[in-house]
Design brief:
297 residues, alpha/beta, TIM Barrel, 11-stranded parallel beta sheet, 9 helices, 13 strands, Luciferase-like_dom, EC 1.-.-.-, oxidoreductase activity, Diverse_substr_monoxygenases
């Protein structure tokens, strides 16, 4: 099993000076196949929409890093690990700046970037960046259009949602076109995955929050819709996030990972241990244990 892990971008371990670089370097040496980030701009004290399973926001989200800075740091200190995001709230970013940033990280990593996008769910975050939350879906569609142009043409021009790119030379290109994975369980989000994405970004939690057939049934529907859209359904990848909830024992995490990977057969899997570790040392120790236990099956 090729298993990845979240970089320390959330929680107490994230506050360690130099911690992202150290974790990325040592986790890859230990056998991590991927290094992943999530995206959280704000942790409101009284959120309009609480984090799922909480009345407010988890304490781990009080300490957060910029996901792109984390990926750039990881790119500089690693050689082989996939550098992924699950999930960047893409419609909260200015598209031209985001396109340039993604391209730079892919070039710096020698083609290891796997950008995973979603539209977010926090009204406070959209208010903080001055973007209407009601526009999030069409802004993501627009970003996907722009990335096709930015990565595919040397002369770029684009009329976007609230911005215009005049004809411009854009000759820095990714090492290879990064595969774009999209998140979402809603009908519109699933249709976007089927029609436009290179892969889907489901999430699983330990202990289990719902039956595994929720994921397998959803994936089957997405792939059927992809075939209806004239695409190869089996070419649609899966990058599975596994969230280890507070207090979960490491052997339970490993056992659940083995079972859900055998059931869903994702092409990428990563474990987020942010809720279990207070330091980079502890996070590295847990990472080593999960790698060892999952290798045993």
């Amino acid at each position: 099993m090729r298993l990845g892990f979240s970089l320390p971008v959330f929680g107490k371990a994230a506050a360690t000076p130099g911690g992202i670089a150290r974790f990325a370097r040592e986790a890859e040496r230990a056998g991590a196949a991927g290094l992943w980030v999530g995206d959280r701009l704000l942790s409101p004290i009284a959120p309009v929409v609480p984090y799922p399973g909480y009345e407010t926001m988890p304490e781990e989200f009080w300490t957060v890093h910029d996901p792109f800075a984390a990926l750039a740091i990881a790119a500089a200190v690693t050689e082989t690990a996939v550098l992924g995001s699950s999930t960047i709230n893409a419609s909260q970013y200015q598209p031209a700046n985001l396109a340039r940033l993604l391209t730079s990280i892919d070039v710096a990593s020698n083609g290891r970037l796997l950008p995973g996008f979603g539209i977010g769910w926090s009204p406070e975050e959209y208010a903080a960046v001055g973007i209407p939350m009601s526009e999030r879906g069409k802004r993501l569609d627009d970003l996907l259009d722009l990335l096709d142009t930015w990565w595919g043409k040397d002369i770029v021009a684009h009329e976007g949602v609230g911005y215009t790119i005049a004809e411009s030379h854009v000759e820095l290109k990714p090492v290879r076109r990064p595969p774009v994975y999209l998140a979402g369980f809603g009908e519109k989000s699933q249709r976007r995955v089927a029609e436009r994405a290179d892969g889907w970004l489901p999430a699983w939690s330990v202990p289990e929050a719902f039956p595994a057939d929720v994921l397998t049934t959803t994936l089957a529907k997405i792939r059927a819709d992809a075939e209806k859209a004239g695409r190869d359904p089996q070419a649609l990848g899966v990058a599975l996030r596994v969230n280890a909830n507070p207090g979960t024992k490491v052997d339970v995490v490993a056992e659940s990972v083995v079972k859900i990977v055998a059931t869903l057969e994702p092409d990428h899997t990563f474990v987020d241990l942010s809720y279990l570790a207070d330091s980079v040392d502890e996070l590295l120790d847990l990472t080593g244990q999960v790698l060892e236990l999952t290798a045993k099956g």
